[in-house]
Amino acid sequence: MNGEQLQSRCDGEASASAASGTGDVDPLPVPRLLRISNVTCDSFNIGWDMEGGGREGITHYFIDLNKKENKSCNKFKHKDVPTKLVAKAVPLPMTVRGHWFLSPRTEYTVSAQTAAKRLDGDYAVSRWSEIVEFCTADYSTLQLNQLLQKAEAIAGRMLPFTVFYRNHQKDYFYQASTSYRSRDAQCRRMLPAVKDHSGSHGSPISGTLEGVFFSCNTEFNTGKPPQDSPYGPYRFQIGADLLFDQNTNVYFGDFYCMYTSYHYVVLVLAPEGSSGNAFCKGRLPALHPSDNHFLRRVEGADGSLSFLHAQDVLLEVVYTDPVNLSSGAVEPIGGQQLTSQSTVNAKKDPSCKVCNISVGR
Question: Where would I find the Phytanoyl-CoA hydroxylase-interacting protein-like C-terminal domain in this sequence (predicted)?
Fold first, then answer.
């Protein structure tokens, strides 16, 4: 923040003084017209106007920061972190930065007051400013690349596969109505739907990217898709070459776990020229189709294609274009429907050291 990082600490004396609004110096100016700018996933700039005298006596600023959903209760990741931030008075605007109390894509309220530290260590303070609201940003490509590096470290060796598959209830594939928004019953197509909010809170694809979800992991002993599924007893299978051909780009979207030993990697398959590809460019790290740690397309000397997936992570693949049911086959699976393993709107474990980066969830 203009050469000095904002520090955070509890200060009971400051709180008591703030309540009384008294001190042994001239009345301090109240911050007015708070302005929030340069918002990232774990920082923001704050500035304000000040009217009246007493500016020469200002030694500190107090910033009160709270999550919007509960303004009266501090629900930060670490309970010992106060909402009140104390900063030395520096030229405005200044930067508030800290991954341990700011989460990405989260709404906050903030207000400020000016303070003068007295010889006895107590503070004289102004009245609080008005309260303003803002929302932190998604992960930038910098944070996503940090997450990517963590995922690469545990991906493991590559195993061959031949099909992408999608599990669902029977009526999703066979019904004649249009009750499923992700199905075009008349044209027998699976349509892109908005991705839910499972995974990392700061992933830019959550709640924004539209696509059709597929899996491609295989069982180690059979080389085939598993018989169990958390999403339904019927499975659509399509040849890997139909979704991941030479015209399809692959992007890294997320890496997370759900309080288990299993880790998930979300990849996006986006055909060149599609709206999905336009969304991913500049937002997500692009992976080389034939040289990455998760999903590879290998072209043989004769032009044939073969495909590999990472062994030690579960891949969730988002294909950004509609998929015709006629291009694959639907069959019942013989295993169980393990609903407890569903990742729909699943919350990421914020304490996992394997899949978290310095900016939080």
Answer: 135-361
Radius of gyration of the CA atoms of the chain, in A: 26
Task: Express the helix, strand and coil content of the chain in percent, nearest 5 each.
Answer: 15, 35, 50
Cis-peptide, bond into residue 93, ω within 30° of zero: yes
Alpha-carbon span 278 to 256, nearest angstrom: 25
Q: Is the dihedral of CA 64, 65, 69, 73 positive or negative?
A: negative
Mean of the per-residue pLDDT values for the chain?
85
SS3 (DSSP) at 300:
coil
Q: What is the pTM of this model?
A: 0.82
* Closest alpha carbon to 101 in 89, 113, 84, 88: 84
As to burial, measured by CB atoms within 10 angstroms (0-12 exposed, 13-18 middle, 19+ buried), residue 77 is middle
In tens, the pLDDT along 56-88 reads: 889 999 999 988 865 444 443 434 445 688 899
Q: Say how far apart CA 321 and CA 276 lie, in whole Å.
A: 7
- Superfamily name and number for 7-135: Immunoglobulins (2.60.40.10)
Half-sphere exposure of 213 (CA within 13 A, CB side): 21
Within 10 Å of residue 340's Cβ, how many Cβ atoms?
Answer: 7
CA distances from 302 to 249, 299, 306 (A): 22, 8, 12
User: How far is Cα 282 from Cα 216, in angstroms, rounded to an integer?
Assistant: 26
User: Which positions ≥6 away from 84 have C-beta within 8 Å?
Assistant: 8, 10, 11, 14, 15, 62, 63, 64, 65
How do the domains of the chain map onto residue ranges?
7-135, 141-341
Tell me what pLDDT residue 238 has: 98
* Burial class of 59 by CB neighbour count within 10 A (0 to 12, 13 to 18, 19+): middle
Question: What is the CB neighbour count within 10 angstroms for residue 170?
Answer: 12
| Interatomic CA distance for residues 85 and 21, integer angstroms | 18
Nearest-angstrom CA–CA distance, 121 and 106: 35
For residue 326, give the amino acid letter.
Answer: S
Q: How many helices (H) and strands (E) would you count in the chain?
A: 5, 24
**Residues 138-175 pLDDT 10s:** 999 999 999 999 999 999 999 999 999 999 988 899 88
